[in-house]
Design goal:
heterodimer; A: 480 residues; mainly alpha; 20 helices; 75% helix; globular; B: 492 residues; 2 domains; two-stranded antiparallel ribbon; 2 strands; 74% helix; 3% strand
Chain lengths: 480, 492
């Protein structure tokens, strides 16, 4: 039996709708059952991605002019599914204490819609479908970020996210209209072909592309569109922050990879990306240095990692970006998972992690792995990510980027190891053990193993991307 | 077998973390590792070209990146050093109050990282194994350190992290500058590119490697992390770090920079000489001024790096052999010094020269051990250090020798020879302050090293003496590696 690729998104959407309906009609049902059902169903869909129909239509017509099922798309569909599953596990932990103010059914169901949006976005090759899927993701985030209605911080975060996100959507649509105005097209492949011609208005097209980049910069938290990140990350319920920092960023980068081909044919684009990259690297890493709240620290770190990923964008290395995103997924989700459990006991600031090594050696070790992987210590996935990024920077003779990257990595060591210091050096008054549920324990162990495994043997990720050879394709189109 | 040597400490560390008995596992694993290494040393056939005991698993075929291990004379010597010092360090680890499991695991991780780096035949893993030691060092100094441990731990970690990322850039740049068809991370295949790297690129790469490796070795302007960290670190950590891990950078220079980047080395040799004289003279004088034994030892280990650099900078057969031998000898002597210092601190609670004195009465064996190690560090004949230093000095002096006048190398050698005097001054002063004179009132109840602790001391001293009287055993093993370099370099 083989599955038609769009059936995956349909299945996820149906799953979300069915779970909402069940929640509505079976009032007495334990809401946690919804989460377990969602995890099981998403896992099934994840397995199904390995049984996709291989044959694709030769010419891009009808649906296939909006939708592609190339290996990159399939890969990021799996990426979205894994992220959502882990986030649902975190949500189970998160809601263990604070059940009162939560409408749990929706809290568990909404990430599924986000997931559908992310999966659709991975396949989008037309500005229309990019816009639609981006909105599906963003609108479910509007609700999720402000979900904790009793908490002013969450509400504030919700409003900030709503306003700024709406603004960025405006930029996106406006940019798309400019590009449409110049070329009369929305399909990315056709736009690429159109940009190759000389008789188009390059200035107008560049303006449109600039606006689209602003919107994407907002999604991936690139400087100067990063102002919202620390506040929203801090205010949002922590599992939502995790989803935001992994899912939203990955989606932004997939779209960026896709639009890069046409955009780089326009003048000044490469220089602009270079400047954004340098600013993002410096801002993210420097701002994280004095931060004492772990959630905000992770927000700045997410900006910093956007910087490293942007190095990959500047150097047009799709494989390196993809690998980095996978590493980022593993280590970020792991750190958020630990944070959620610890935050329920003590709090979210770094000093609340004091003495964690005695209270729960397992959680401390998990956090240690997440932090050293984020910092980029070898034998973790994070290091291979940085290795590939720096390798492509040097291959493209972007020495300035490589140099700034190295300096900022040094900053990274400081602020990530601050957490390690708190856990292992400092002692605290609290000595009670922290309970970790079986499901979270299994999930975290899986994440740790994946981090180490990919830190030694990164080949599986490249295998999964192989048929396209994205980086090669990108490079061949842009050797000017 | 080599895989077992590399993995034993890491597996033992994992087992200890998982709940195996701490000291027994650690000691058993490190002794087993030493025996295996000795076996490899005996079985090694120096007359055969190339690497022995090679194993290889491909990781990224299209990058020619693989997990490969293998030994030649140079790496075998280094692995032997690492194994000996590991046994001594684990042996000297007494009872730990806090997180005992983690302490032993960290020690074994450092040792496993160092051995893995020396035995790796792949640039990537060569680098990665070294970094494996970074976080354990951070934890060791941070949790169990003394003095200003917080500052020391941050300093060493940030310095080494930055240095190693600079090094990473250098390695990637090296890889990118290999001829396209020969691009590989596999070290034995690198020599096919000898002479094919453009001179410009060689200069840049050499500078990056010099800064990167130099930071790890505590080359003069990048040294300030070292004394502080060694002073704060618990004695076993200082033994492993100063004795073994710091040799990684020198090993890297010998392995990569000397054969692959001769033009870069020539171009930067003036700078290197200035820096290494900074190590020998400037740091030497700083060492004399120290008022605490641990700081003095930390600075002395920085200073001695200068001699090894001199051997590397002279870039000829004798000099590199001398450098390799000196790395081995220095690793053993500094480990012994730190071990004795650690025991003294345990008993008296201080390492301040002002507060110590007359310990030779209460701790005669410790005094003897310290004396041996100090003489070795000064470079007295009969110790391996002497044999090595004499090779370094001769080779450096002969470098560019003309009858009519002195060149940079000759001047540098003469100045470096003063370093021997300097080290005699501070080592003997330290000995006098700690072991001679009147004992302090409250230091009468101090007991000497237990019998069981005398065994590792005897092992270290015996090794120093054996290779001091019979350096040819070491030279015969090391020499083919370098002979290989210099003959291939001349006939490309």
């Amino acid at each position: 039996m083989s599955i038609w690729p769009p059936q995956l998104e349909i299945a996820v959407l149906v799953l979300g709708a069915v779970l909402l309906l069940i929640e509505m009609f079976f009032v007495s049902l334990d809401k946690r059952a919804i989460a377990y059902a969602a995890i099981a169903s998403l896992a099934t869909i994840l397995v199904a991605t390995w049984y996709l129909a291989p044959a694709l239509p030769a010419q891009a017509t009808g649906l296939w002019s909006f939708y592609t099922a190339d290996p990159l798309a399939i890969f990021f569909k799996r990426f979205a599914l894994v992220t959502t599953i882990i986030v649902l596990v975190m949500m189970l932990d998160y809601t263990r204490r604070s059940t009162s103010s939560f409408a749990l059914g929706e809290f568990f169901a909404l990430p599924i819609f986000t997931c559908a949006g992310l999966m659709y976005m991975a396949s989008a090759i037309d500005f229309v479908s990019i816009f639609v899927s981006l909105e599906l993701v963003t609108i479910s985030f509007y609700v999720l970020v402000g979900f904790d209605r009793k908490d002013p911080a969450s509400l504030e975060a919700g409003v900030k996210y709503l306003v700024l996100s709406a603004l960025s959507t405006g930029f996106l649509v406006y940019g798309i209209t400019w590009i449409f105005g110049v070329t009369g097209l929305t399909n990315l492949n056709q736009i690429t072909a159109a940009f190759e011609k000389i008789d188009i208005d390059k200035n107008a097209a560049t303006f449109g592309a600039l606006l689209v980049l602003v919107a994407l910069g907002f999604k991936i938290a690139a400087v100067p569109f990063q102002i919202w990140v620390p506040d929203v990350y801090q205010g949002a319920p922590t599992p939502v922050t995790a989803l935001l920092s992994v899912g939203s960023k990955a989606a932004g980068f997939v779209v960026l990879i896709r639009v890069l081909r046409p955009f780089l044919m326009l003048p000044h684009m490469d220089r602009l990306l270079l400047i954004i990259t340098i600013l993002t690297l410096l801002y993210g890493n420097l701002a994280a240095l004095p931060e004492g709240n772990l959630k905000r620290l992770l927000a700045y770190s997410s900006i910093a990692h956007a910087g490293y990923l942007l190095i990959g964008i500047v150097c047009l290395d799709g494989a390196a970006i993809t690998f980095y995103l996978v590493a980022y997924l593993l280590m970020t989700l792991l750190s958020f998972a630990v944070l959620i459990i610890v935050a329920q006991q003590t709090g979210e600031s770094i000093s609340d992690f004091d003495g964690l090594a005695t209270r729960s050696p397992f959680l401390a070790f998990a956090m240690l792995m997440a932090m050293i992987s984020l910092a980029g210590v070898p034998f973790t996935a994070g290091f291979f990510g940085k290795f590939f990024i720096f390798a492509s920077a040097i291959a493209q003779h972007q020495f300035a980027l490589a140099f700034i990257g190295v300096v900022t990595v040094g900053c990274g060591f400081y602020y990530y190891l601050k957490v390690v210091r708190a856990m292992y050096w400092n002692s605290s008054d609290k000595i009670d053990n922290i309970h970790v549920s079986m499901l979270s324990r299994v999930t975290m162990t899986a994440l740790i193993i994946a981090i180490v495994w990919l830190g030694i043997y990164p080949q599986p990720i490249f295998r999964a991307l192989e048929p396209t050879r994205i980086s090669v394709a990108l490079r061949s189109t842009t050797t000017r | 077998m080599l895989l077992l040597i590399v993995l034993l400490p890491i597996l033992a560390a994992t087992a200890i973390l998982a709940g195996a008995p701490t000291r027994k596992t650690a000691l058993g694993a490190s002794v087993a590792m030493l025996l295996l290494t000795l076996f490899a040393f005996v079985e090694y056939e120096p007359w055969r070209r190339g690497f022995q005991y090679v194993i290889s698993f491909p990781i990224l075929p299209e990058w020619h990146l693989s997990f490969s291990l293998g030994l030649d004379g140079l790496s075998l010597t280094m692995v032997l050093l690492a194994a000996i010092v590991t046994v001594a360090a684990v042996w000297f680890t007494g009872k730990i109050d806090k997180y005992e499991r983690a302490f032993y695991a960290c020690l074994l991780f450092i040792s496993g990282g160092a051995i893995g780096a020396f035995a790796s035949l792949d640039l990537f893993f060569f680098y990665a194994f070294h970094e494996l030691a970074l976080i354990p060092t951070f934890l060791l100094i941070g949790i169990w350190g003394s003095g200003d441990r917080v500052a020391a731990a941050w300093k060493i970690t940030i310095y080494l992290a930055l240095g190693s990322f600079v090094l990473l850039l250098g390695l990637i740049l090296l890889y990118q500058n290999l001829p396209v068809a020969l691009r590989t991370f596999y070290i034995p295949d690198l020599k096919r590119s000898i002479g094919q790297i453009p001179p410009d690129a060689q200069r840049n790469i050499f500078l990056l490697l010099l800064i990167g490796f130099g930071t790890l070795i505590s080359l003069f302007p990048f040294h300030s992390w070292a004394p502080e960290a060694y002073a704060s670190a618990p004695a076993p950590a200082a033994m492993l770090h100063a004795g073994v891990l710091k040799k990684f950078g020198l090993y890297g220079l010998l392995r990569l920079a000397v054969p692959l980047l001769p033009e870069g080395a020539r171009y930067w040799s003036g700078l290197l000489i200035v820096l290494l004289l900074g190590n020998i003279i400037y740091i030497g004088l700083v060492t004399i001024a120290q008022k605490k034994l641990d700081w003095m030892l930390g600075y002395s280990s920085v200073m001695h790096m200068g001699y090894i650099f001199l051997g590397i900078a002279s870039a000829n057969l004798l000099g590199t052999i001398g450098a390799a031998t000196l790395m081995f000898a220095h690793g053993l002597s500094i480990a012994l010094l730190f071990a004795v210092a650690g025991e003294i601190r345990k008993r008296t609670g201080t390492l301040d020269f002002q507060k110590l004195g007359g310990l030779a009465k209460t701790m005669p064996f410790a005094g003897l051990a310290f004396g041996f190690a100090a003489f070795a560090a000064i470079g007295l004949p009969g110790f391996a250090n002497f044999a090595a230093e004499i090779m370094v000095f001769f080779s450096a002096f002969r470098n560019g020798w003309e009858m009519s006048r002195f060149h940079t190398f000759q001047i540098a050698t003469v100045l470096a020879l003063w370093g021997v005097v300097i080290s005699a001054v501070y080592m003997l002063r330290a000995y006098r302050n700690v072991f001679m004179g009147q004992p302090n009132e409250h230091q009468n109840a101090i007991v000497d090293l237990r019998t069981s602790l005398r065994l590792p001391v005897a092992m270290l001293v015996a090794t120093l003496l054996v290779f001091g009287f019979f350096p040819q055993y070491l030279v015969d093993v090391v020499a083919p590696t370098f002979r290989n370099y210099f003959t291939t370099a001349q006939t490309p």
